Fold:
Amino acid sequence: MKRKILLPTDFSDNALQAIKYALELYKDQECIFYLLNVFFIKPTNLESLIGMEPGSDLYEATKSNSDNQLAKLLSEVAFNDHGNSKHSFRTISTFNEPLQAIKAAVEEKDIELIVMGTRGQTNARSKIYGSTAIDVME
Structure:
């Protein structure tokens, strides 16, 4: 039976290192790796919140950026995986709060393990874990 492993990414170096770690750790096991990117814009006003409806220019541009970055990441990790026949990859790009998106992916895809970086894009050295990592662990 293939393992189903979720790899949340914000495209930071920290997230990439976690992905590489998971690929190496499970190199001898059959796995489906789900690369998840959660795109969202922190609303600065009501107008920007309303602008994130599917079909709006803001939503579509942000989704397109997420899809493009996931495709680039998929290409990078699939080639670096040297064509491991035991590994397959899927991408998920979604608009949501990170924790809610992770919970939904775990439930929908029957995920058994999440491997993620401890710090995200801010890479704050003053903190051991980022807020999303803490939320997922709790």
The radius of gyration is 15 Å. The mean pLDDT is 83. The first strand starts at residue 3 and ends at 8. Residues 3-137 form a domain with the Rossmann fold fold (CATH 3.40.50.620).
